[in-house]
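Order emerges. For instance:

***
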Amino acid sequence: MRAAVLVIALTVFFISALRAYASVRINEIQIEPQEAIELVNDSDLAVDISGWFLDDSGGTTYVTLPDNTLLPAHSCLAFGESFNLNKASADMARLFDNTAPPTTGSAQLIDSLGYTKSLGNSISWQRLPDSTGSAIASASSITLWNYSRQSCLATIIPTEIPTPTALPSPTPQATPTASVTISNIHISEIMANPVDGDEWVELYNDNDYPITITKWYIDDSADAGGSPRSITITIPGYGWGSVTFSGSLLNNSGDTVRLLNATKQEIETVTYGDAPEGASYSRYNGNWCHTTPTQNAPNAPCPAQQTKTTTTTVAQITSNPINMPPVTHTTIQPTIHLTLYRIPPEPTILGASTIQIPPKPLSQPSPFQTLFSLFAALYCCGTAIWFCYTEWYVSQSKKLFPAFLYTFQRES
């Protein structure tokens, strides 16, 4: 009986250990300014990762994790070393257990996370959601949970053990602060007066890589009295992403839309006038106008013969912000236009493009119509042949019939 209980206990222990091993994931990769790899343990058990290996996608060099390295449950550790990660081309971070080094054929791969290239200082590749998602580019959050931006390091509580084993401290990393700049995110389109449904604001990412903005804000006029709406969204490179608001945030008679970062600093503001029902306020070719909504797609061209004045304020966030007055851009188009038609110029902002409508293809006959036409043709040909045969037969009968009649009378 005791042996059976011992076997069951050992089985449960090894199954739990295997599950814990499988829950250790590479959660984030930072290439510049200092290489760092963050590991996260998503299980309910602490995992001893002493002697494990971190490596890039190949080569002969790798990093061995130090002895007595324990990764607590639902926590993270970050390691800053030279992993030989590529900056200008794609690479991959790989995690192996302590069975054998990565350069041997018996190495046991635990997890890997790939990326396309380095996107600059303090821009890392990270899983979102944490530990399970695919790699996206965002402001570095080494030692922080990627979604909540709260610390993922375990809080060590001392216990009454006579000779406790001190847990190693993770390699110090540069903790990202609000001074890290996420640039080239713009307000692209505003739906303030929908026919039905909710209001929404569309943002455009003018970078060649995806950007995740976490706990930023959309707000109306600063003195309007309402509370800013928190947003978290991933926007693809040179792409669009929209956030929808339940309830009323924007005024139909005119309002200001402000994009605020995580510290509620203004990134961009757009002011619009009276909002027609069902029309969005869109940026096209550097100008703003009310036009057909194109949520999460290139914006529609502005209607002809329209006068508009738009005020757009853009704030640049740097490591040492300087209080500078906002830059105001005013665009006025004349109300008198010649009746000349021209091809619209190629768009230069927000990636809008001219849509060409292909010619409508000729309709093809149905199988029934084809069969009916074939039958009609065969019927006409058959009728013509039968008519010709009948005429020939009658003409031959007239020649033969008198001779037959004469022979019959003579025999009689």
Notes: The mean pLDDT is 77. The first strand starts at residue 24 and ends at 30. The CA atoms of residues 129 and 227 lie 27 Å apart. The radius of gyration is 38 Å.
